[in-house]
Amino acid sequence: MSYDPSESTGTGTTLWRDGWPVYDRGATVCVIGAGPSGLTAVKNLKEAGFGVDCYERETSVGGGWNWRHDRSPVYASTHLISSKPLTQFPDFPMPDDWPDYPHHSRVLSYLDHYADHFDLKPHIWFGTEVVKVEPADGGTWDVTTRSTSKYGGAERIHRYAGVMVANGHNWSPKMPAYEGLEDFRGEVIHAGAYKDAAQLRGRRVLVVGGGNTGCDIAVEAAQQATRCWHSTRRGYWYTPKYLLGRPADQVNDQMLALRVPFRVRQWFAQRTLGVTVGDTTRFGLPKPDHKLFQSHPVVNSQLLYYVGHGGIAPVPEIVRFQRNSVELKNGETVEPDLVVLATGYVPRFEFLEPELLGIDGQGRPRLYLHTFPRRFPTLAVAGLVQPDAGVFPMAHWQAVAFALYLRAREVAPQRAAAFGRRIEAEANWSWHDGATTDSTRHWFEVSHVTYLRELQKAIDTLEGAR
Ligand SMILES: Cc1cc2nc3c(=O)[nH]c(=O)nc-3n(C[C@H](O)[C@H](O)[C@H](O)COP(=O)(O)OP(=O)(O)OC[C@H]3O[C@@H](n4cnc5c(N)ncnc54)[C@H](O)[C@@H]3O)c2cc1C
Ligand SMILES: NC(=O)c1ccc[n+]([C@@H]2O[C@H](COP(=O)([O-])OP(=O)(O)OC[C@H]3O[C@@H](n4cnc5c(N)ncnc54)[C@H](OP(=O)(O)O)[C@@H]3O)[C@@H](O)[C@H]2O)c1
């Protein structure tokens, strides 16, 4: 089979699976999701000469950045925490007159322009959900889709030469189990259902979780709620959005560009925070139980301000819920009428058998560069990373590497084999500088420079440059 884009229009129904017709899409590649990662997958596969069909369950592009989407995790006040130059796609800069940290509505408009500029929308089947992806003959995949409209008709199966999964990993709530929760009379929501500060107005709010979401919501509660308790199970390093007059990620990036060794960078950044932010235990916050860079960065300039003004009361972990109150680890009880669980998200790939992505008993996929499964070279995942910078450039280069891999399998099998051996040989499974705290939230944590360097090596192998 050769990757001739002209073949990609084939929709013959000569094939069958379990009594259902299979529409053969020939050399076309399927992309699942039209968020930032799916869009860049469509663009880069298309540029490499592949026919591409993308399925998106929602009715427009943008993924999580489109807050009208059912499963979008963004709330009215969300701004980027990774600054503009470290977030934008490498071949499509954000406008020069935009601020360092654009609002989510601007990020959506940027993604919409990206889709238009590269003419991606004609490739997307909107309102179409992928419900099953199964291996078929010779490395091909049978993809079952159904319309999300209630008048959408039956499921359909299409056969593809390859599949890039870009379904996002920040939409399925991670819900902690608490004793007594079912008897609690207040309202309990996950942060995924938090959209607007009006939900907090005039209420007694307990926010759980010290990630970026938990800190953002605690700051909003400090301004809107009558009380705000912020419960974390450990102390964190709270990095302000600006350090030394620059976006904080750019300061870190500058040191990385100068190849400052990790330990020196860690020491310097901790000292800088020590001098600028100071000792956070003075505010009643728990001391971090880890060094800086050992936990996903929390970037928030306002949390300490509101703790310092009494708007946020830091409290420890929840022990159990009672009918009208919540008992904390220090023996104290608080009486919120709204509890917001900002406890993060879990990855979900219900349309794939777990072994295809090497998913273990906990639900964690084992993929080379969080992208390539061991035994299925025509399958890959885009965007399954949590970096100390923006996600978009990583998804871009992941898609470039996947396109090169598919192409190499046809035109340079020895390069493809070399890349396959690289995947097989991988024993590390982490592209993060130094250790991270033991938490499921760090499954996909990467240090962006280390990660991109390894991805560059993969691309070099596939291009025959090493
Ligand atoms: C509050 C918040 C703020 C963030 N801030 C930043 C930031 O500052 N910088 C940054 O780089 N990242 C940030 N992120 C991370 C964010 O997840 C990524 O920026 C980005 O949205 C990931 O893109 P994606 O395409 O991989 O996933 P998503 O944006 O989640 O898109 C996935 C798409 O796939 C579709 N889909 C899923 N399953 C199916 C299916 N079965 N069939 C068809 N379609 C399907 C979904 O409808 C969705 O459109 C933030 C995340 C959150 C929660
Ligand atoms: N642009 C922005 O402004 C912005 C805003 C929000 C989020 N984001 C991004 O979105 C992603 C998700 O962030 P997130 O904050 O929603 O999730 P997260 O980073 O996974 O943080 C979850 C928080 O909840 C805590 N937690 C988890 N399970 C718990 C339990 N059972 N009991 C008590 N605490 C528990 C975690 O503690 P441990 O540390 O102990 O695990 C952590 O503090 C991240 O990449 C983040 O950077 C960006």
List low-confidence stretches. Answer: 1-9
**CATH fold category name of the largest domain:** FAD/NAD(P)-binding domain
Which strand order does the major sheet show? 1-2-8-7-6
Computed over alpha carbons, the radius of gyration is 23 Å
List the domain count as a whole number. Answer: 2
What does this molecule look like?
The longest helix is centred in the last third of the chain and has 20 residues, at 392-411. A hairpin with a 4-residue loop joins strand 19 and strand 20 (326-328). The model is unreliable at 1-9 (pLDDT under 50). The protein has two domains: 5-172 and 346-463, FAD/NAD(P)-binding domain (3-Layer(bba) Sandwich), CATH 3.50.50; 181-240 and 277-341, FAD/NAD(P)-binding domain. The chain has 466 residues and is of the alpha/beta class. It is 26% helix and 21% strand. It is globular. Helix 1 runs parallel beside helix 8, helix 8 (392-411) crosses helix 9 and helix 9 (413-425) runs antiparallel to helix 10 (448-463). 46% of the residues are buried. Bound molecules: flavin-adenine dinucleotide and NADP nicotinamide-adenine-dinucleotide phosphate. Flavin-adenine dinucleotide is lined by residues 32-38, 55-58, 63-65, 73-74, 78, 80-82, 87, 129-130, 166-168, 170-171, 213, 351, 383, 390-392. Flavin-adenine dinucleotide binds next to helix 1, strand 4 and strand 6.
